[in-house]
Amino acid sequence: MRGKIKIKLIKGEIDGKKETRIFRDCDREIEYQGRAFSLKLNILDKIKFEGSTEKKAISEVENALQILQLQSRELCKRWNAFLVVREEYDRKAEWIRKVFSSFTMLLNNVKLIELEDPSLKREFLQKLLKWFEDTARENEEIKGRWEEIKEELKELEEELRKEEQLEKEEQLKKEEQLEKEAREMAKAGVEKAIENLIEKEYVLSPSVPPEEFKKQLELKDIELAQEECERALKSFELGVKGLEGGGYEEAIKEFEEALKSLPEDLKARASVLWNLGIALIEWPLGNRSENLNRAIESYKKVLAIYTNEKSPERFAGAQNNLGAAYANLPTGDRAENLNEAINAYEEALKVRTLDRFPWEYAETSANLAVAYAMKGDTSKAREIMVEVVPLSKILGHPRYEKYEAYRGLLARLGEGP
After folding, report:
1. CB crowding 57-87: b at 16 or more within 10 Å, else e
2. Contact 129, 62 (CB under 8 A)
3. Which 8-state DSSP code applies to residue 306?
4. What DSSP state is assigned to residue 260?
5. How far apart are the C-alpha atoms of 207 and 275, rounded to whole Å?
6. Burial (Cβ within 10 Å: 0-12, 13-18, ≥19) of residue 366
7. How many CB atoms lie within 10 A of CB 334?
8. How far apart are CA 11 and CA 365, in angstroms?
9. DSSP conformation class of 394
10. Which residues contact 294 (CB under 8 A, 6 or more apart)?
């Protein structure tokens, strides 16, 4: 049981009026700002900023945070010394909280893996500097620093744009090289060439987030001890963390641990199996065949809970991932595996229609095209990609260029345009 918080009152005089105030612990007052600094260390210090201008930008953002923290502490001391009226204190303290909160939210939305992309890194830095500029408008001390560096920082966007252009040119060279290799491989047979070109080319339905899993555990019809719920949630959260960071082996262990606390036929259990399946499909090490067979069994169990009648969207997502597991299964009857993959994708597309779910329709259709190509039916694969490519372009899908390159290769390796 927590002890009662002790409140210390102080008396003083301001503007000729006596006043009683709550004494503020100036160290505790700025504790909430520590998260902003913690996130900065975890994110800004890990981003690969190589240019001097980029490093200057990050350094100045850190300086701005430190200035705000010092101002916050000074404001607290002025309050305790009766040197600032209540209204002015409330206004300034609230503004500082909002500034730190907006900075924390900005960093919370960052994924380090995305910042390997120059265009996303440039977009992130633009948001970071926009925060700096907005803060400078309301704070004279920070405004002074902003005025000193803003001209130099204008060069930043141009530097990153050049980096992005070089990345695109490099990607174009890779695609051109891929096409060249494809033409050479075609001499040895279309089937062998397609098999090499589409290796690991699939899109999985996304993982179940911890928030949704927690809600499932809180359903009234679940008879599960609090200790079991907490143990399952902790393992699930660690599993998702591993999944997002590419630590698939650790994620598999955590999801398996979460399953020990959950009985059969629960949606919460289906969520664990769903994420376990993704980790097993994505893990490149270990026994590949065994992992994919386990993923297949996981999604079959998921489909026993998420039926088309009760949960059509989840049903379609599970079918999509089941198809990917079958399509990449290297052992057993390869033709039968691919037929199972095609059947799973087609089941998913009964729900993921073009009019209702265009984004998911494009992804699953592309997966289906890959399965047909693996099977050797390049004509059917090309027919599907002819529809997927313009659709993905309209949607602004991030895989549009890859789909376009793949469609082009199918055209060169197939019969006809």
Report:
1. bbebbeebbebbbebbeebbeebbebebeee
2. no
3. S
4. T
5. 5
6. buried
7. 12
8. 72
9. H
10. 276, 280
Domains of the chain listed by start with CATH number: 22-162 (no CATH), 188-413 (1.25.40.10)
Residue 280 clears pLDDT 90, i.e. is over it = yes
| Contact in structure between 239 and 258 (CB atoms under 8 Å) | yes
Residue pointed to by tokens 């088309």: 308
Where are any strands of DSSP class E within 159-240? none
| Residues in contact with 194: Cβ distance below 8 Å, sequence separation at least 6, in sequence order | 373, 374, 376, 378, 381, 410, 413
Triad 250, 317, 291: Cα angle to 5°: 35
Question: What is the rounded CA–CA span in Å between residue 16 and residue 336?
Answer: 89
Structure tokens at 110: 């960052």
Q: How far is CA 150 from CA 53, 54, 55, 132, 198, in A?
A: 11, 12, 14, 10, 47
State the sign of the Cα–Cα–Cα–Cα dihedral 177, 394, 201, 407: negative
Structure confidence by residue, pLDDT tens digits, 106-126: 776 666 555 666 666 667 777
- Mean pLDDT, range 79-94, rounded to an integer: 89
User: Quick one: CA torsion of 30, 34, 40, 43, rounded to 10 degrees?
Assistant: -150
Distance CA 409, CA 411 (A): 5
Give the amino acid at 255.
Answer: F
Please state, in angstroms and rounded to a whole number, the distance separating the CA atoms of residues 316 and 318: 5
Neighbouring residues of 32: CB distance < 8 A, sequence distance ≥ 6: 97, 100
Q: What is the pTM of this model?
A: 0.54
- Residues 410, 385: contact at Cβ < 8 Å? yes
Neighbour tally for 49: CB within 10 Å? 19
Q: Out of 137-146, 305-314, 367-376, 392-401, give the one with best mean pLDDT.
A: 305-314
- Tokens of residue 236, six digits: 């699930």
Helix then strand then coil, % of the chain, to nearest 5: 75, 5, 25
Q: Give the per-residue pLDDT at 153.
A: 61
Contact 47, 115 (CB under 8 A): yes
Q: What are 9's two structure tokens?
A: 């009152």
Q: Rounded to whole angstroms, how far apart are CA atoms 289 and 22?
A: 66
Query: Of the candidates 214, 117, 127, 129, which has an alpha carbon nearest to the alpha carbon of residue 163?
Result: 117
